[in-house]
Amino acid sequence: MSAVAHEHVDGHAHDDHGHHHKETFITKYIFSQDHKMIAKQYLITGVLVMGFIGIAMSLIFRMQLAWPGESFAIFETFLGKWAPGGVMDADVYLALITMHGTIMVFFVLTAGLSGTFSNLLIPLQIGARDMASGFLNMVSYWLFFVSTVLMVISLFVEAGPAAAGWTIYPPLSALPMAQPGSGLGMTLWLLSMTIFIASSLLGSLNYIVTVLNLRTKGMSMTRLPLTIWAFFVTAIIGVISFPVLLSAGLLLLMDRSFGTSFFLSDIFIQGEVLHYQGGSPVLYEHLFWFLGHPEVYIVLLPALGITSEVMATNARKPIFGYRAMVASILAIAFLSTIVWGHHMFISGMNPFLGSVFTFTTLLIAIPSAVKAFNYITTLWKGNLQLNPAMLFSIGLVSTFITGGLTGIILGDSTLDINVHDTYFVVAHFHLVMGISALYGLFAGVYHWFPKMFQGRMMNKNLGYIHFWITAICAYGIFFPMHFVGMAGVPRRYYENTAFPMFDELTNVQVLMTVFAIIAGLAQLIFVYNFINSIFYGKRGPLNPWSSNTLEWTAPQKHIHGNWPGKIPEVHRWAYDYSKTYENGDYIIPGQDFVPQHIPLQENEEELNH
């Protein structure tokens, strides 16, 4: 299959290379069908723009938690009528929580991470001219863009944006009259997510077909870089689970607009009995979390794949246990689709069913531990190049382990009941999903920036400052949050002044908020470094990290079809670092790496990985 696909793609692109119609500004930068440009569109829209909005919201509601009832001019500036006199209105607090969670989980970490790096790396690392369908790739980005616009518009409607938590549980999401955030803002949220899911499905199908059909000659599945395995399996999880959330959203829209009762039953508003009956909000929970738990790994697996590549490159060692890493990705993908019930232990679930979900949840610790140990073993006795990408990759391993340990508590139905819906849960998923995925994203940006922006390098010293402030502040925010949760402080509360037993924890909230503000400001260093480096970054060599994968053989100047002339063939796996003959000489004299397109040398054996 690989050879046939190679000949077809190579022949087609070679024929029209240099003879395709001249691109205009519109076709090159806006309605582009080139995977490299679409990757940059996802990065700028999803990470820089939506990420800025999401982080700003978190800082605003953290200020409210640290100093409840205080007047801040910044509240009045950004919230307008929702903060009269600079004091935050209670109605807008849950809306900020809702929009922050939605934007960060779906628009930044799902679309921003997968959309950027799957688009950039899949064709380049498997030796393809482009995605299987450039047109569908363009459509998937523009559907994503429309969904972001709708979500941002919902912030400015009269009654305010959606306010039911990022999980959008009914009845708050199903009854337009329930509260201000249940009105037009909620409808726009549902429409935005419907379009987002369509975008995600188009993108995922494109990624899957490209990996299966367009690999260059010699690129067997066991020679794929772990980045491609991660993107490939992530796309499969998305195709399986996102349609279930789509069904939940459409049924919610019907409950809201057409009088159905899928998720509503026996509802009273101000003593008035509504006509809804027969539905169940728990049904919505099942539909949401069937996507919601795989979503954790839709976000995390691409970051883990990026970390595998960055870590092997900068440790100058082969990745430890390649086949075990692939097996763990596949195991995580399977198990992640059968553990959604651990989000619902307090929903009245049958205790036997709870024990089943506990068992399957704890099983997922095995492939996760395989990945963690393999990363640590790859680092062990390596010749570590501690550039910013490597530091963020090591940071990911740290937060993946610390966040995963608290997952054992939340995965056990007996223990979970005690801390469910407290800040302990918030601390867990922010470390294991939010911070870990962001670290992977930052590692990917620092590592592949020269490939995205034609050889320009980001400033390494600014990258170090960005890493250390971010890493210290991330633990400064979320480590104390575990103890606040174990003390019983509930999440999503506008203020806890009604509970005198939590007064002594106010100082901890202040501490976490100060760390959050510093961390938020540190991201401005990254944004400055990113934008400045696009125009003024110094140019590096073609292969600045001495890496083995095929993308570094493509010219720095972006061209139609990635490679001029023939696509390079693959003769080895992606991790031949520091490989030597029996006498200790490097395979290529004076070079501690052997790129994938270099044929086996005389007396060299292919590593049995």
Helical percentage: 55-70%
Order of helices and strands: HHHHHHHHEEHHHHHHHHH
Global shape: globular
Strand content is under 5%
Q: From the helix content, strand content and strand pairing, which structural class follows?
A: mainly alpha
Which sequence of strands runs across the widest sheet? 1-2
Low-confidence stretches: 1-20
The total of helices stands at 17
What is the CA-atom radius of gyration, in angstroms? 25 Å
Average pLDDT confidence is 92
First-to-last CA distance: 22 Å
- Please outline the major beta sheet: 2 strands, antiparallel
Number of strands: 2
Write a structural description.
By secondary structure, the protein is an all-alpha fold. It has 17 helices and two strands. It has helices at 2-16, 25-30, 35-66, 73-79, 90-126, 134-153, 184-213, 226-257, 281-315, 322-336, 351-363, 365-379, 388-411, 413-419, 423-452, 460-486, 506-536; strands spanning 268-269, 272-273. A hairpin with a 2-residue loop joins strand 1 (268-269) and strand 2 (272-273). The longest helix has 37 residues, at 90-126. The two termini are 22 Å apart. Residues 1-20 have low confidence and may be disordered.
